[in-house]
Structure formats: structure tokens, C-alpha cells
Design goal:
Helices cover about 60% and strands about 10% of the residues. By secondary structure, it is α+β, with helices and mostly antiparallel strands. Strands 1, 2, 3, 4, 5, 6, 7 and 8 form an eight-stranded mixed β-sheet that branches. Residues about 1-20, about 45-50, about 185-190, about 430-435 and about 560-569 have low confidence and may be disordered. It is elongated.
Length: about 575
């Protein structure tokens, strides 16, 4: 086989228009698929029915997906606690401004404040070393506690429950310190409404309702916390507020209504002012409206949080598939191209229409063939029309390829197989510019590569001897080796093939075709290098080489017993 380099062969390019059209078609299909996925997730129909979620509970149909959603990290949980603490502060300011006995109320708020401050410290423990770096330098557990709040559901749920319960209770704590208005049942005591309101402070009653509404709002600030827990808190808090307003402290609201409408009794107030103006009824209406609103917002927030989780999960799965395909393509490409060349073709900046080529000053090229295989190959019924012959050839080539995985032959690169001929080269993985730095070391490295190629050829002989013993054949290897400058490149875009060209390749091929069975034939220049490395070479003499005239060649003297030992190992 001739291996010639011409200017015309290197100027061949794959069709850039075809590659661009294929790339644009792929990009268009990918874009359409992404648009359809996003439209499907954001469609209004998904709010009514979704194949991956139950319509009422919003739970995922797949238990594993539901488990992952409930165990996701919430790094922003500490900010939820911060919002709840701000609502607590607002309730505290309102209660202290309207309370008649702020000293007693302050004790209750003090206990609640300690609970919330402890919760805040646990959530923001990781930030404390930033403010006190010297004092807290040894307290590494603070960051661990802060991270556990965002990563462990069983840690953040108790904190959310405690914070919400404190706010819901503190919203109505003011009623505990208000004296029960027995005088509301005595009409004579209501003759002077202004005195009664001033003495009992009923003006704070609307603010109690406002604080209850703030407490209901506090249940919704924990966005990604369990929706069932938030709904339970909303329902229980509303029921508790209904009981306080309509049962346990209903006289306060009746009395406040009497203060607002002093000319009539509690039975005639509704007739005078209308149903929707009574403080007791209106308080329940406000709480009901806020309850319905918060339930709807909670459900909607949970739905979009789950949709966001689904989108990220699908995106992660697509990325995993893409990475898997990229790794698979890389492995497949590295089986076709050398690793240092394959990395260029899988890069982001690589264009399919670019021609890859590289010149090398010194590469050792080897051709090893099994000439006896041509006579061995026959097509008949006994060997299944040649299938068994091909199976044996595949076993031979596979054993040859197995040698390439050894660290000793890491610098040897298989180029291709031509029938029963095995072509390999050493010295192709040299990085650019390495040939120009420190010529003495480069020359030593080049000579080492030639020695490795001879050792590889000896190992091939040993492998073939092992196959002969198991298959009861007598195949012998014929090897030709030469070194010198070559040009390496990749031809083809759809099915790329890495190959080398140059006079060195042609001479190496002639060394194999004019050689003898069971021997390694080299040129005179290669023989000189091998003798410096300690190998002994036997001069064959002048032989006629097609296209080169007469060349002096040498046989490398090898110990066959040594090669057979390599095969057995």
C-alpha cells in the first residue's frame, strides 16, 4: 500500500455547507423541543391537571420524586425566619402601643422574643464568625449548625413550627390582660359611653383583629416548607380566633359594639347598623377572607415551587443524558482517533470543516503482517463461509490491541489494520514546540520511542506464538520498522480516520513487504539507533525497494524464548 503526501490530498475539505445545514437543523430541533417543554410546564392547563402531580394534594405521582422534593436544600430558610421575626416585631409594636398594662404584656413578649432570637441565632449561626472572627475562630460547629438548618428537613421543620406558633399566640395575648367587662350587661353603666371606653380601653379591639391577620400572614412566609403543615396552622389558627371572638371573649366584642352604638342594645344594633357593621361579625369576616386568600396563595406557591422542581429535575436529567452521550462519543472517538487528537474534536471551538494536520520530525513507524493468513483464509461450509477465519483474525488483532493498554507501550499508537497487516507508530503524542526545546533530550526521547517500538514488535511476536499454541496454527509475523519525519492528519467529517503520510511510512511498508517471516527488518539509520540502545542487528545486505532503488537493511536479533515468555505472561 502506497502512503504518499501531495498538496492536493491535504487541500481536500468536507463540504462546509452540508455541515452547517446539519448543525442548523440540529439547533432548530433542540430549540423547538425546549420551547415545547417550557410551554407545557407554564401552560394554564397544568394548573387543572398534571400527569406528574395529583390535582388536589399537589403530591408527585412518583414516590421517589416526592421524597427528593421534600429533602431538597433550603438555603433561604433563614430568611423565612427573618420575615416571621419582622411580623412578630410589628405585632409587638402594635400591642405595646395600645395595651393598657404594657408591663404585664412585656413579660409575655419577652419570653416569645427569647424563643425567636434563639431560632434566629440557630439559622444565622454561620454568619456570626464574620462579625467576631477572633472570638469565634475556634467555633467551627456554628457553620455546621447553620448548614444543617438549610439541608436537614427534620431540623428546619421544628424551627418553623415554633416560630409560627409563637406569632399566632402572641397575636391574641393582649386579651388575657384585659379585665372581663361585667358592666357590659348593665345598661346603667353604659350611660356614659366615653367614660366606659376610657376606663376599659375597648378602643384596642380592632388592633387585636389586625394582629390576628398578621399572624395568619406569618403562616405563609415559609414558601418551600410543607404545604400540609401551613394549611394545618392556617385552619387551626382561624378556628382558635373564631372561638375567641364568638365564644370565650364574645362579650368584649358585644361591649365594643355597644360602645360604638350606645343608643341601642346588642339586639337592636344589627337592626340599626346592619349585619356587616357589627365588630364581632366583621372580625370573623376579615379572618375568613384572609384565610381563603392565604390558602389560595399557599396552594399556588406550592404548585409553582413543584413545577420549578420538575423543570430543574428534567433539566438535570437532560444534562446527565448529554454528559453521558458526550462521554460515549468521546470514548468512541478515542477508539478511532488518538486521545490527543480526539480532545480537539470534542472541544467547543472545533469546526467540522477545519482540517486537522500536524508535522513531526521523528516518528517510528511499524508494519506487522501475518502473510500466512491469506493462505489460511478459505470460504467453505466447514468454517461457515470464512466466518471462523475472520474470528481468528479478530482474536489476533484484539490481542495486539491489548498490548497498547500496558504502560510500557503508552507511547505507541495504533494507526489502522489493512487486512492482516497491523500498522502502528510511536512519537505522535509529542506536544507542539517540544521538538525545538533542548535538542539533546529530544533526541534521546526519540531514540527511546524507537526502542519501545522494537519491544512492541517483539511482544506482538510473543502474542502470535501464544495464539498458535491454542489454535494449533503456525502463523509467523513479518515486521518492518523505520523512523523519520511524517505528517499526521484526520480525513473525513462523518467517519473521520487518523492516518500518517510521508516517505518514512512508505519505506517502513517496504521493510515489511520485503522482509522475512519471523524477523524484524529495519533500515540502516534505524539499525544505528538500535545498536546505540543495546540491540544487536544483523546486516542483510542490499535489497531492491520499489521506488527507492537499493537499500541496505538489517534484521534485529531477538530472543524468541524471551518473546514467548512475554506472550505467556
Amino acid at each position: 500500500t502506497e502512503h504518499c503526501v501531495t498538496a492536493h490530498s491535504l487541500s481536500l475539505h468536507p463540504s462546509p455547507h452540508r455541515n452547517r445545514s446539519q448543525k442548523s437543523k440540529f439547533d432548530e430541533e433542540l430549540y423547538n423541543k425546549m420551547v415545547m417543554t417550557i410551554d407545557g410546564l407554564s401552560s394554564s392547563k397544568q394548573w387543572i391537571k398534571s400527569e406528574e402531580m395529583f390535582s388536589f394534594t399537589l403530591w408527585f405521582t412518583k414516590k421517589e420524586l416526592e421524597k427528593q422534593y421534600r429533602a431538597i436544600d433550603l438555603p433561604g430558610f433563614k430568611y423565612y425566619i427573618g420575615c416571621a421575626s419582622f411580623i412578630f416585631l410589628c405585632i409587638f409594636v402594635v400591642q405595646m402601643c395600645v395595651a393598657k398594662q404594657p408591663q404585664d404584656l412585656g413579660v409575655s413578649f419577652g419570653v416569645s422574643t427569647c424563643i425567636l432570637l434563639l431560632t434566629l441565632c440557630v439559622c444565622f449561626a454561620g454568619h456570626l464568625p464574620r462579625f467576631f472572627p477572633e472570638r469565634l475562630a475556634s467555633c467551627q460547629w456554628l457553620s455546621t449548625v447553620s448548614e444543617a438548618v438549610g439541608k436537614k428537613p427534620f431540623v428546619r421543620l421544628p424551627l418553623a413550627v415554633a416560630s409560627t406558633a409563637v406569632i399566632l399566640i402572641i397575636a391574641v395575648i393582649n386579651l388575657c390582660f384585659f379585665p372581663f367587662p361585667e358592666l357590659c350587661n348593665n345598661t346603667a353603666a353604659l350611660t356614659n359611653a366615653t367614660e366606659f371606653e376610657a376606663s376599659h380601653g375597648l378602643f384596642f379591639m380592632p388592633y387585636v383583629v389586625y394582629c390576628c391577620l398578621l399572624g395568619i400572614v406569618a403562616c405563609g412566609v415559609f414558601l418551600r416548607v410543607s404545604v400540609e403543615l401551613k394549611l394545618i396552622f392556617l385552619v387551626l389558627a382561624s378556628i382558635g380566633y373564631y372561638i375567641i371572638i364568638l365564644q370565650t371573649h364574645s362579650n368584649l366584642f358585644e361591649c365594643y359594639g355597644s360602645v360604638l352604638y350606645p343608643n341601642g342594645t346588642s339586639d337592636t344594633i344589627l337592626e340599626q347598623s346592619g349585619l356587616m357593621k357589627h365588630p364581632k361579625v366583621m372580625s370573623c369576616v376579615y379572618i375568613s377572607l384572609f384565610l381563603i386568600t392565604m390558602v389560595f396563595l399557599t396552594q399556588q406557591t406550592e404548585y409553582y415551587c413543584r413545577q420549578d422542581f420538575l423543570l430543574k429535575n428534567k433539566n438535570r436529567q437532560e444534562q446527565d443524558k448529554i454528559e453521558t452521550m458526550e462521554n460515549l462519543n468521546r470514548l468512541l472517538l478515542e477508539n478511532v482517533l488518538p486521545a490527543h487528537v480526539a480532545s480537539l474534536f470534542v472541544g467547543e471551538n472545533k469546526k467540522n470543516e477545519d482540517l486537522y494536520y500536524k508535522s513531526y520530525d521523528c516518528v517510528c513507524v511499524m508494519f506487522a503482517s501475518v502473510p500466512d493468513f491469506k493462505e489460511f483464509y478459505t470460504e467453505c461450509d466447514i468454517n461457515k463461509e470464512g466466518l471462523e477465519c475472520l474470528r481468528l483474525l479478530n482474536e489476533i488483532i484484539a490481542d495486539f490491541d491489548e498490548l497498547l493498554s500496558k504502560p510500557k507501550f503508552s507511547g505507541v499508537e495504533k494507526i489502522k489494520t489493512i487486512g492482516s497487516t497491523y500498522m502502528a507508530a510511536a512519537g505522535l503524542s509529542v506536544t507542539a514546540g517540544q521538538d525545538n526545546n533542548q535538542p539533546a533530550q529530544d533526541r534521546e526521547r526519540q531514540h527511546t520511542q524507537i526502542g519501545n517500538m522494537v519491544e512492541f514488535a517483539i511482544a506482538l511476536v510473543g502474542k502470535l506464538d501464544g495464539i498458535n499454541r491454542h489454535s494449533f496454527n503456525s502463523f509467523r509475523l513479518r515486521v518492518g520498522i523505520n523512523y523519520g519525519p511524517v505528517i499526521a492528519g484526520v480525513i473525513g467529517a462523518r467517519k473521520p480516520q487518523y492516518d500518517i503520510w510521508g516517505n518514512t511510512v512508505n519505506v517502513s511498508s517496504r521493510m515489511e513487504s520485503t522482509g522475512e517471516l519471523g524477523k524484524i527488518q529495519v533500515t540502516e539509520e534505524t539499525s544505528n539507533v538500535l545498536q546505540k540502545l543495546g540491540y544487536s542487528c544483523e546486516c542483510r545486505g542490499m535489497i531492491k525497494v520499489k521506488g527507492k532503488g537499493e537499500l541496505r537493511t538489517f534484521f534485529v536479533c531477538t530472543d524468541m524464548s524471551k518473546s514467548q515468555g512475554i506472550a505467556l505472561s
